[in-house]
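ok new one. same drill as before - C-alpha coordinates go in, u give me an amino acid for every spot. 309 of them this time. try not to just spam alanines like last time pls lmao
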Protein backbone atom coordinates (compact mmCIF):
# COMPACT_ATOMS: atom_id res chain seq x y z
CA UNK A 1 0.00 0.00 0.00
CA UNK A 2 2.87 2.30 0.87
CA UNK A 3 3.97 2.58 -2.76
CA UNK A 4 0.66 4.07 -3.81
CA UNK A 5 0.66 6.92 -1.33
CA UNK A 6 4.36 7.33 -0.45
CA UNK A 7 4.07 10.79 1.09
CA UNK A 8 1.16 9.80 3.32
CA UNK A 9 2.78 6.60 4.51
CA UNK A 10 6.23 8.03 5.09
CA UNK A 11 4.64 10.81 7.15
CA UNK A 12 2.48 8.53 9.31
CA UNK A 13 5.32 6.07 9.73
CA UNK A 14 7.62 8.90 10.87
CA UNK A 15 4.98 10.26 13.21
CA UNK A 16 4.25 6.80 14.63
CA UNK A 17 7.94 6.16 15.32
CA UNK A 18 8.32 9.58 16.93
CA UNK A 19 5.35 8.90 19.20
CA UNK A 20 6.82 5.50 20.10
CA UNK A 21 10.11 7.19 21.01
CA UNK A 22 8.25 9.77 23.05
CA UNK A 23 6.34 7.03 24.83
CA UNK A 24 9.63 5.31 25.63
CA UNK A 25 11.12 8.51 27.08
CA UNK A 26 8.01 9.68 28.98
CA UNK A 27 5.80 6.61 29.38
CA UNK A 28 3.25 8.11 31.78
CA UNK A 29 2.40 11.18 29.75
CA UNK A 30 0.97 9.53 26.63
CA UNK A 31 -0.90 6.99 28.73
CA UNK A 32 -2.62 9.85 30.58
CA UNK A 33 -3.80 11.72 27.53
CA UNK A 34 -4.39 8.74 25.22
CA UNK A 35 -8.18 8.66 25.63
CA UNK A 36 -8.64 12.27 24.46
CA UNK A 37 -6.02 11.98 21.71
CA UNK A 38 -7.67 8.80 20.41
CA UNK A 39 -11.13 10.36 20.60
CA UNK A 40 -9.97 13.52 18.77
CA UNK A 41 -8.32 11.52 15.97
CA UNK A 42 -11.35 9.29 15.54
CA UNK A 43 -13.86 12.17 15.49
CA UNK A 44 -11.82 14.33 13.08
CA UNK A 45 -10.71 11.63 10.63
CA UNK A 46 -11.94 8.16 11.61
CA UNK A 47 -15.65 8.97 11.45
CA UNK A 48 -15.53 11.12 8.27
CA UNK A 49 -13.79 8.28 6.38
CA UNK A 50 -17.03 6.30 6.65
CA UNK A 51 -19.39 9.24 6.19
CA UNK A 52 -19.42 9.27 2.39
CA UNK A 53 -20.89 5.79 2.08
CA UNK A 54 -24.06 7.24 0.59
CA UNK A 55 -21.99 8.77 -2.25
CA UNK A 56 -20.10 5.54 -2.89
CA UNK A 57 -23.41 3.76 -3.13
CA UNK A 58 -24.75 6.40 -5.51
CA UNK A 59 -21.73 5.94 -7.76
CA UNK A 60 -21.93 2.15 -7.64
CA UNK A 61 -25.69 1.76 -7.94
CA UNK A 62 -26.86 4.56 -10.19
CA UNK A 63 -25.66 2.94 -13.41
CA UNK A 64 -27.45 -0.29 -12.44
CA UNK A 65 -30.53 0.77 -10.53
CA UNK A 66 -31.21 4.32 -11.57
CA UNK A 67 -31.81 7.36 -9.37
CA UNK A 68 -34.55 5.91 -7.17
CA UNK A 69 -32.20 3.50 -5.42
CA UNK A 70 -31.16 5.82 -2.57
CA UNK A 71 -34.24 4.97 -0.55
CA UNK A 72 -33.35 1.30 -0.85
CA UNK A 73 -29.82 2.13 0.26
CA UNK A 74 -30.89 3.92 3.43
CA UNK A 75 -33.45 1.19 4.20
CA UNK A 76 -30.82 -1.50 3.76
CA UNK A 77 -28.23 0.42 5.82
CA UNK A 78 -30.71 0.91 8.67
CA UNK A 79 -31.89 -2.72 8.50
CA UNK A 80 -28.30 -4.00 8.80
CA UNK A 81 -27.71 -1.63 11.73
CA UNK A 82 -30.95 -2.68 13.42
CA UNK A 83 -30.29 -6.39 12.92
CA UNK A 84 -26.78 -6.08 14.28
CA UNK A 85 -27.91 -4.02 17.29
CA UNK A 86 -30.38 -6.80 18.09
CA UNK A 87 -27.60 -9.38 17.74
CA UNK A 88 -25.54 -7.38 20.27
CA UNK A 89 -28.45 -7.43 22.67
CA UNK A 90 -29.03 -11.18 22.32
CA UNK A 91 -25.52 -12.54 21.84
CA UNK A 92 -22.91 -9.97 22.92
CA UNK A 93 -19.87 -12.27 22.91
CA UNK A 94 -20.60 -13.69 19.48
CA UNK A 95 -21.33 -10.19 18.15
CA UNK A 96 -17.94 -8.98 19.35
CA UNK A 97 -16.17 -11.96 17.79
CA UNK A 98 -18.01 -11.33 14.54
CA UNK A 99 -17.01 -7.65 14.60
CA UNK A 100 -13.37 -8.52 15.29
CA UNK A 101 -13.29 -10.99 12.36
CA UNK A 102 -14.94 -8.69 9.87
CA UNK A 103 -12.77 -5.75 11.03
CA UNK A 104 -9.64 -7.84 10.41
CA UNK A 105 -10.80 -8.51 6.89
CA UNK A 106 -11.67 -4.85 6.32
CA UNK A 107 -8.25 -3.61 7.53
CA UNK A 108 -6.38 -6.16 5.43
CA UNK A 109 -8.44 -5.32 2.39
CA UNK A 110 -7.52 -1.66 2.59
CA UNK A 111 -3.82 -2.59 2.85
CA UNK A 112 -3.71 -5.05 -0.04
CA UNK A 113 -6.21 -3.56 -2.47
CA UNK A 114 -3.44 -2.30 -4.78
CA UNK A 115 -2.14 -5.82 -5.45
CA UNK A 116 -3.74 -8.53 -7.52
CA UNK A 117 -3.45 -11.45 -5.09
CA UNK A 118 -5.62 -13.79 -7.15
CA UNK A 119 -9.28 -14.62 -6.77
CA UNK A 120 -11.24 -16.43 -4.08
CA UNK A 121 -10.02 -17.72 -0.75
CA UNK A 122 -6.33 -16.84 -1.27
CA UNK A 123 -7.16 -13.21 -1.65
CA UNK A 124 -9.51 -13.25 1.34
CA UNK A 125 -7.01 -15.14 3.50
CA UNK A 126 -4.33 -12.54 2.66
CA UNK A 127 -6.63 -9.73 3.77
CA UNK A 128 -7.61 -11.57 6.89
CA UNK A 129 -4.14 -12.43 8.19
CA UNK A 130 -2.92 -8.87 7.66
CA UNK A 131 -5.86 -7.47 9.62
CA UNK A 132 -5.43 -10.21 12.23
CA UNK A 133 -1.97 -8.84 12.93
CA UNK A 134 -2.95 -5.16 13.26
CA UNK A 135 -5.90 -5.98 15.51
CA UNK A 136 -4.34 -8.74 17.61
CA UNK A 137 -1.13 -6.80 18.23
CA UNK A 138 -2.68 -3.99 20.33
CA UNK A 139 -5.31 -6.18 22.01
CA UNK A 140 -3.08 -9.13 22.94
CA UNK A 141 0.05 -7.11 23.71
CA UNK A 142 -1.87 -4.78 26.04
CA UNK A 143 -4.31 -7.41 27.27
CA UNK A 144 -4.45 -5.99 30.83
CA UNK A 145 -5.82 -2.74 29.35
CA UNK A 146 -8.09 -4.50 26.83
CA UNK A 147 -9.74 -6.87 29.34
CA UNK A 148 -11.76 -4.17 31.21
CA UNK A 149 -12.91 -2.67 27.89
CA UNK A 150 -14.00 -6.08 26.55
CA UNK A 151 -15.74 -6.79 29.88
CA UNK A 152 -17.69 -3.53 29.48
CA UNK A 153 -18.62 -4.46 25.93
CA UNK A 154 -19.87 -8.00 26.48
CA UNK A 155 -20.67 -7.98 30.19
CA UNK A 156 -18.26 -10.87 30.76
CA UNK A 157 -14.50 -11.02 31.21
CA UNK A 158 -12.59 -12.61 28.30
CA UNK A 159 -10.51 -15.73 29.07
CA UNK A 160 -7.22 -15.21 30.89
CA UNK A 161 -4.12 -15.74 28.74
CA UNK A 162 -0.50 -15.97 29.85
CA UNK A 163 1.64 -13.07 28.59
CA UNK A 164 4.08 -15.46 26.89
CA UNK A 165 1.29 -16.99 24.81
CA UNK A 166 -0.23 -13.66 23.88
CA UNK A 167 3.11 -12.32 22.71
CA UNK A 168 3.86 -15.54 20.87
CA UNK A 169 0.59 -15.18 18.91
CA UNK A 170 1.46 -11.59 17.95
CA UNK A 171 5.01 -12.62 16.93
CA UNK A 172 3.63 -15.56 14.91
CA UNK A 173 1.18 -13.29 13.05
CA UNK A 174 4.01 -10.86 12.35
CA UNK A 175 6.17 -13.62 10.87
CA UNK A 176 3.27 -15.11 8.89
CA UNK A 177 2.68 -11.70 7.30
CA UNK A 178 6.37 -11.34 6.45
CA UNK A 179 6.23 -14.76 4.77
CA UNK A 180 2.98 -13.89 3.00
CA UNK A 181 4.55 -10.71 1.55
CA UNK A 182 7.55 -12.72 0.36
CA UNK A 183 5.20 -15.29 -1.16
CA UNK A 184 3.25 -12.60 -3.09
CA UNK A 185 6.56 -11.27 -4.39
CA UNK A 186 7.69 -14.73 -5.52
CA UNK A 187 4.28 -15.25 -7.14
CA UNK A 188 4.75 -12.00 -9.06
CA UNK A 189 1.76 -10.30 -7.39
CA UNK A 190 3.90 -7.47 -5.96
CA UNK A 191 7.18 -5.87 -7.04
CA UNK A 192 10.50 -5.91 -5.16
CA UNK A 193 9.84 -2.32 -4.14
CA UNK A 194 6.37 -3.25 -2.82
CA UNK A 195 7.91 -6.11 -0.83
CA UNK A 196 10.45 -3.78 0.80
CA UNK A 197 7.70 -1.29 1.60
CA UNK A 198 5.41 -3.95 3.07
CA UNK A 199 8.18 -5.35 5.28
CA UNK A 200 9.18 -1.90 6.53
CA UNK A 201 5.54 -1.03 7.11
CA UNK A 202 4.98 -4.20 9.16
CA UNK A 203 8.01 -3.39 11.33
CA UNK A 204 6.79 0.18 11.97
CA UNK A 205 3.28 -1.06 12.74
CA UNK A 206 4.65 -3.67 15.15
CA UNK A 207 6.54 -0.91 17.01
CA UNK A 208 3.58 1.50 17.05
CA UNK A 209 1.01 -1.10 18.11
CA UNK A 210 3.08 -2.68 20.86
CA UNK A 211 5.00 0.34 22.20
CA UNK A 212 2.20 2.93 22.35
CA UNK A 213 -0.56 2.53 24.95
CA UNK A 214 -3.53 0.45 23.68
CA UNK A 215 -6.02 3.12 22.60
CA UNK A 216 -3.46 5.55 21.22
CA UNK A 217 -1.61 2.86 19.23
CA UNK A 218 -4.84 1.59 17.74
CA UNK A 219 -6.12 5.12 16.96
CA UNK A 220 -2.83 6.05 15.26
CA UNK A 221 -3.10 2.95 13.06
CA UNK A 222 -6.82 3.41 12.45
CA UNK A 223 -6.54 7.06 11.48
CA UNK A 224 -3.03 7.31 10.01
CA UNK A 225 -2.93 4.07 8.06
CA UNK A 226 -6.50 3.00 7.51
CA UNK A 227 -8.78 6.06 7.39
CA UNK A 228 -6.53 8.45 5.46
CA UNK A 229 -5.66 5.92 2.75
CA UNK A 230 -9.29 4.82 2.52
CA UNK A 231 -10.26 8.48 2.00
CA UNK A 232 -7.64 8.77 -0.74
CA UNK A 233 -8.99 5.60 -2.39
CA UNK A 234 -12.48 7.05 -2.25
CA UNK A 235 -11.35 10.39 -3.71
CA UNK A 236 -9.73 8.51 -6.62
CA UNK A 237 -12.96 6.62 -7.08
CA UNK A 238 -15.07 9.82 -7.14
CA UNK A 239 -12.57 11.37 -9.56
CA UNK A 240 -13.66 8.86 -12.18
CA UNK A 241 -16.79 10.95 -12.60
CA UNK A 242 -15.59 14.39 -11.59
CA UNK A 243 -11.97 15.17 -12.45
CA UNK A 244 -11.94 18.16 -10.07
CA UNK A 245 -12.94 16.10 -7.01
CA UNK A 246 -10.56 16.73 -4.09
CA UNK A 247 -10.18 16.86 -0.29
CA UNK A 248 -12.40 19.92 0.10
CA UNK A 249 -15.26 18.22 -1.74
CA UNK A 250 -14.67 15.09 0.31
CA UNK A 251 -14.90 16.80 3.69
CA UNK A 252 -17.94 18.80 2.57
CA UNK A 253 -19.67 15.58 1.48
CA UNK A 254 -18.68 13.81 4.69
CA UNK A 255 -19.94 16.59 6.96
CA UNK A 256 -23.67 15.72 7.24
CA UNK A 257 -23.24 12.07 8.24
CA UNK A 258 -20.22 12.88 10.44
CA UNK A 259 -22.46 15.34 12.27
CA UNK A 260 -25.19 12.69 12.62
CA UNK A 261 -22.70 10.13 14.02
CA UNK A 262 -21.16 12.61 16.47
CA UNK A 263 -24.60 13.77 17.60
CA UNK A 264 -25.55 10.13 18.16
CA UNK A 265 -22.44 9.54 20.25
CA UNK A 266 -22.95 12.76 22.22
CA UNK A 267 -26.61 11.86 22.84
CA UNK A 268 -25.54 8.47 24.13
CA UNK A 269 -23.01 10.04 26.50
CA UNK A 270 -25.56 12.64 27.64
CA UNK A 271 -28.23 9.99 28.25
CA UNK A 272 -25.89 7.91 30.35
CA UNK A 273 -24.98 11.00 32.34
CA UNK A 274 -28.64 12.02 32.80
CA UNK A 275 -29.51 8.55 34.01
CA UNK A 276 -26.63 8.84 36.47
CA UNK A 277 -24.93 5.86 34.88
CA UNK A 278 -21.18 5.62 34.78
CA UNK A 279 -19.94 6.44 31.28
CA UNK A 280 -20.19 3.04 29.62
CA UNK A 281 -17.44 2.68 27.08
CA UNK A 282 -19.02 -0.66 26.09
CA UNK A 283 -22.17 1.02 24.82
CA UNK A 284 -20.12 3.54 22.86
CA UNK A 285 -18.20 0.66 21.27
CA UNK A 286 -21.43 -1.15 20.34
CA UNK A 287 -22.75 2.08 18.75
CA UNK A 288 -19.56 2.45 16.70
CA UNK A 289 -19.65 -1.19 15.60
CA UNK A 290 -23.30 -0.93 14.55
CA UNK A 291 -22.64 2.07 12.28
CA UNK A 292 -19.43 0.48 11.00
CA UNK A 293 -20.83 -2.87 9.85
CA UNK A 294 -22.74 -1.60 6.79
CA UNK A 295 -19.71 0.60 5.94
CA UNK A 296 -17.44 -2.45 5.80
CA UNK A 297 -19.88 -4.35 3.58
CA UNK A 298 -20.13 -1.39 1.20
CA UNK A 299 -16.37 -0.87 0.97
CA UNK A 300 -16.03 -4.54 0.07
CA UNK A 301 -18.31 -3.82 -2.90
CA UNK A 302 -16.28 -0.73 -3.80
CA UNK A 303 -13.04 -2.69 -3.95
CA UNK A 304 -14.74 -5.44 -5.91
CA UNK A 305 -16.15 -2.96 -8.42
CA UNK A 306 -12.81 -1.14 -8.69
CA UNK A 307 -9.99 -3.53 -7.96
CA UNK A 308 -7.71 -0.55 -8.09
CA UNK A 309 -9.90 2.44 -7.23
C1 LIG B 1 -12.22 -4.97 21.01
C2 LIG B 1 -11.29 -3.83 21.31
C3 LIG B 1 -10.86 -2.94 20.33
C4 LIG B 1 -11.27 -3.18 18.92
C5 LIG B 1 -11.64 -2.29 18.01
C6 LIG B 1 -12.11 -2.60 16.67
C7 LIG B 1 -12.33 -4.00 16.27
C8 LIG B 1 -12.36 -1.56 15.82
C9 LIG B 1 -12.77 -1.66 14.45
C10 LIG B 1 -13.02 -0.55 13.72
C11 LIG B 1 -13.37 -0.57 12.33
C12 LIG B 1 -13.48 -1.81 11.59
C13 LIG B 1 -13.57 0.61 11.68
C14 LIG B 1 -13.85 0.71 10.27
O1 LIG B 1 -13.86 1.65 9.60
C15 LIG B 1 -9.92 -1.79 20.69
C16 LIG B 1 -10.51 -0.45 20.37
C17 LIG B 1 -8.61 -1.96 19.93
C18 LIG B 1 -9.62 -1.70 22.20
C19 LIG B 1 -9.66 -2.93 22.93
C20 LIG B 1 -10.89 -3.70 22.72
Amino acid sequence: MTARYPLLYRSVQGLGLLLALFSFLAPGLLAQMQFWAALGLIVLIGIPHGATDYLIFQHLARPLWGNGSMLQFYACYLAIMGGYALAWYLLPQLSLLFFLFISMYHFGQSNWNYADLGAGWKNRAAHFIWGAFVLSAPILWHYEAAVPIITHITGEAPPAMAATWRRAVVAALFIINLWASLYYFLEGAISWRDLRNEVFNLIVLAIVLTQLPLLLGFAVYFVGWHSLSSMMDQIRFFRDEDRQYGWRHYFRNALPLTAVAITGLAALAWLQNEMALAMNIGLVFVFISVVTLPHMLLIDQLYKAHDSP
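The CA atoms of residues 185 and 191 lie 6 Å apart. and btw The pocket of retinal is lined by residues 50, 99-100, 103, 106, 135, 138-139, 146, 149-150, 214, 218, 292, 295 (CB under 6 Å).
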